[in-house]
């Protein structure tokens, strides 16, 4: 047992040293200082279909405690992003190149068409989840920081149209897994998404595509 203690202590120290950076890193500029990040972006972009469970916290200026939602996330390069909220009520939100679609438990839908002249926050999600660096740099300034396998990306809107909906977007992960997203509109209004169990390389069935995408 005594021999195990030093090994355990070393493991704990190593784990303590690695943590998601607490502050944004330097600005990432394509062709200048992005080479060290290229492997991570390439690996994340090549994951194929993604299915995750998540917990979402929404903070509003009029409430001290966040509203808590839970559900499952599906992402497909071909079909876009689908958020299936299961708590507190059943609802599906689809974000794709056509715009935004909301579908309730009865199958009733509401849609908002995409406007490339004034992209909303939901439209910005697609290039973020695809880790498409050229597309991202058209919409955002990007700052990147890393501590071991833990990394953090901070996006700030370049256009006033997008800045009306979003102050900053932060994406955090470990290795090749996204673990947390934060959408901040103001000091008192933000949304935090904690990504839990994740499967990559997923092929969605025809039934899933019909139910959870457009």
Key terms:
11 strands; single chain; alpha+beta; 11-stranded antiparallel sheet; outer membrane lipoprotein receptor (LolB), chain A; disordered N terminus
Describe this structure in words.
- There is one protein chain.
- The chain has 214 residues and is of the alpha+beta class.
- It has a single domain (28-212), classed as Clam (outer membrane lipoprotein receptor (LolB), chain A), CATH 2.50.20.10.
- The chain has 6 helices and 11 strands.
- An 11-stranded antiparallel sheet has the order 6-5-4-3-2-1-11-10-9-8-7.
What is the typical, i.e. mean, pLDDT? 87
What's the Cα radius of gyration?
19 Å
Helix content: 10-25%
Distance between the termini: 58 Å
Structure described in brief:
A hairpin with a 2-residue loop joins β4 (91-96) and β5. The protein has helices at 4-17, 38-45, 121-130, 133-139, 160-163, 206-212; strands at residues 49-59, 67-76, 80-87, 91-96, 99-104, 109-113, 140-147, 150-157, 168-174, 177-186, 189-202. With 214 residues, it is of the alpha+beta class.
Draw up the topology in text.
Layout: H1 4-17, H2 38-45, E1 49-59, E2 67-76, E3 80-87, E4 91-96, E5 99-104, E6 109-113, H3 121-130, H4 133-139, E7 140-147, E8 150-157, H5 160-163, E9 168-174, E10 177-186, E11 189-202, H6 206-212
Antiparallel strand pairs: 1-2, 1-11, 2-3, 3-4, 4-5, 5-6, 7-8, 8-9, 9-10, 10-11
């Amino acid at each position: 047992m005594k021999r195990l203690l030093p090994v355990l202590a070393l493991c704990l120290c190593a784990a303590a040293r690695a943590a998601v950076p607490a502050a944004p890193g330097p600005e990432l500029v394509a062709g200048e200082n992005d080479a060290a990040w290229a492997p991570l972006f390439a690996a994340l972009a090549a994951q194929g279909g993604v299915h995750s469970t998540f917990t979402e916290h929404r903070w509003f200026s009029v409430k001290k405690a966040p509203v808590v939602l839970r559900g499952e996330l599906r992402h497909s390069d071909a079909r876009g992003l689908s958020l299936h909220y299961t708590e507190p009520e059943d609802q599906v939100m689809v974000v794709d190149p056509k715009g935004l679609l909301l579908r309730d438990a009865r199958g009733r839908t509401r849609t908002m068409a995409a406007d490339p002249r004034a992209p909303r926050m939901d439209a910005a999600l697609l290039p973020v989840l695809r880790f498409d660096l050229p597309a991202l740099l058209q919409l955002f300034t990007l700052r990147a920081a890393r501590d071991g396998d833990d990394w953090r990306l901070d996006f700030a809107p370049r256009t006033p149209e997008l800045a009306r909906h979003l102050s900053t977007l932060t994406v955090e992960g470990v290795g090749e897994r996204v673990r947390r997203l934060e959408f901040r509109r103001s000091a008192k209004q933000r949304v935090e998404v904690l990504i839990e169990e994740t499967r990559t390389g997923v092929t969605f069935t025809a039934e899933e595509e019909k139910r959870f995408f457009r």
